[in-house]
């Protein structure tokens, strides 16, 4: 489904990702964890075709990634910048017009679930509600790959909880691969199938979460404490 | 097509502040000219001057619009570029919105100018007025569009540079490339081979202005009217040459944004 082969990404003299090989399969909810600046966001942007690898190759469903991969990859940015003059409803309709796979009915369903007011302008929404809007826009697409960069960043536990519930309720885990980067591991530990740890641009571990629990008797946080020292 | 129209609708909403700003600016300039003119007893002269300023400024409307619209998008590149739509579609949508706003501001000004000239100056024939307005409209639109396409090209260079260095240095590099490009293009158009290819389709001002002889010489006792023959010649070949260059720059901008700009 997603394959990174010997991928290196440099920003000037700084190496963000270093010769990364990674394969992620369909139908899984995967957490990409690591410290700040470890290369999590870079990995997601590379898969979304928003940045280009310095060397190596990235494919999604066998298709080499470029900017047009947006037709099969939904990407939620960590940035909190949307068109603030739009209402929630306008935003949903605008996204529906731009993506052929956008399910507007599902978007309204998630919007109701997230208790968002459709006529409210984005500029008048709280940060938490803007975070919810991002979730609506991402999960309403029927794409094989969903990338979520820090969806819980700066949000209070109530909002985080509603986002986790949204993930469980609205993701099609038979057809979709969800890759989430987050520092809030405990919030999503119970819903993750796999966890990938990244440090200084290198993948330092890739495990099935159940195996980690059964074979090593470790939670993800315990495992992270172990590998990050 | 629906996706593009919806995107253009979004562009119109995004660009609304600059449109309103220009409308207020134009109204303000004309109102100020009228007020000062009324106080000084020079209404006609000052209003004519204000209309000239407004029409000249309109050449830069599209450039200013794109400066605003593209810089607004710069903060949201992750949104703007995360789309299956090719960059040509994204940029054309901005251009279309800009041209629509430009027309909405230009049409009332053009009508006002036409009426003002008809009411106050009768030395131009109706045909000449229509020709002049037509030529001005054509000139303003084509120049504005060419300027806009050129701007998009250099904006894409600026955007690429700004990923690696700060905005001030990126601006300096972009400005230096603009000057270098201008110099090289000037050398190119003056090559004898290029001149041979493009010096055709001459149109003189006399073809536009009919029934009035423009040129005059004033001495102490009298003034002598003459014609504008050979004083102002415009080549269709030059227009096509510059338009091709602008289109190439547009596609250059699309390529740079697609392949070099990162979020």
From TrEMBL, chain B:
Keyword Membrane recorded: yes
TM region(s), chain numbering: 12-35, 47-70, 91-112, 132-156, 168-185, 233-257
The protein, known as: ABC transporter permease
Keywords recorded for this protein, A-Z: Membrane, Transmembrane, Transmembrane helix
């Amino acid at each position: 489904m997603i394959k990174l082969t010997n991928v290196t990404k440099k920003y000037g003299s700084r190496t963000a990702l270093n010769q990364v090989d990674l394969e992620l399969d369909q139908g899984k909810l995967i957490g990409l964890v690591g410290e700040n600046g470890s290369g999590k966001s870079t990995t997601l942007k590379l898969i979304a075709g928003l940045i280009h690898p310095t060397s190596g190759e990235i494919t999604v469903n066998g298709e080499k990634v470029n900017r047009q991969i947006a037709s099969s990859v939904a990407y939620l940015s960590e940035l909190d910048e949307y068109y603030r003059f739009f209402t929630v409803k306008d935003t949903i309709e605008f996204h529906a017009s731009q993506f052929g796979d956008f399910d507007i009915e599902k978007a309204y369903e998630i919007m109701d679930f997230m208790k968002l007011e459709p006529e409210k302008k984005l500029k008048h929404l709280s940060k938490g509600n803007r975070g919810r809007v991002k979730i609506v826009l991402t999960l309403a697409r029927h794409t094989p790959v969903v990338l979520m960069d820090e969806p819980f960043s700066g949000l209070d536990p109530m909002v985080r909880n509603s986002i986790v519930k949204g993930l469980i309720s609205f993701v099609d885990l038979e057809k979709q691969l969800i890759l989430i980067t987050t520092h809030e591991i405990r919030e999503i530990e119970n819903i993750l199938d796999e966890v990938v740890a990244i440090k200084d641009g290198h993948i330092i571990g890739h495990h099935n979460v159940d195996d980690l629990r059964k074979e090593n008797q470790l939670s993800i946080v315990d495992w992270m404490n172990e590998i990050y020292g | 097509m629906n996706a593009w129209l919806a995107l253009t609708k979004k562009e119109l909403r995004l660009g609304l502040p600059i449109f309103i700003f220009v409308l207020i600016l134009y109204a303000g300039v004309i109102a100020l000219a009228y007020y000062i003119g009324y106080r000084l007893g020079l209404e006609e002269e000052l209003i004519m001057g204000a209309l000239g300023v407004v029409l000249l400024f309109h050449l830069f409307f599209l450039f200013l619009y794109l400066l605003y619209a593209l810089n607004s998008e710069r903060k949201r590149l992750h949104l703007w570029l995360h789309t299956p739509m090719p960059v040509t579609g994204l940029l054309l949508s901005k251009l279309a919105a800009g041209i629509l706003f430009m027309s909405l501001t230009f049409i009332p000004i053009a009508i006002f100018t036409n009426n003002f000239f008809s009411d106050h100056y009768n030395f131009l024939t109706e045909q000449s007025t229509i020709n002049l307005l037509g030529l001005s409209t054509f000139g303003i639109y084509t120049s504005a569009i060419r300027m806009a396409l050129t701007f998009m090209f250099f904006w894409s260079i600026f955007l690429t540079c700004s990923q690696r260095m700060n905005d001030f240095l990126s601006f300096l590099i972009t400005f230096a490339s603009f000057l270098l490009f201008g110099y090289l293009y000037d050398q190119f158009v003056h090559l004898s081979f290029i001149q041979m290819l493009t010096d055709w389709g001459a149109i003189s001002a006399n073809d536009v202005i009919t029934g009035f002889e423009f040129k005059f010489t004033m001495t102490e006792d009298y003034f002598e009217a003459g014609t504008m023959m050979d004083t102002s010649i415009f080549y269709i070949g030059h227009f096509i040459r510059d338009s091709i260059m602008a289109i190439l720059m547009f596609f250059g901008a699309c390529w740079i944004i697609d392949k070099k700009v990162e979020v």
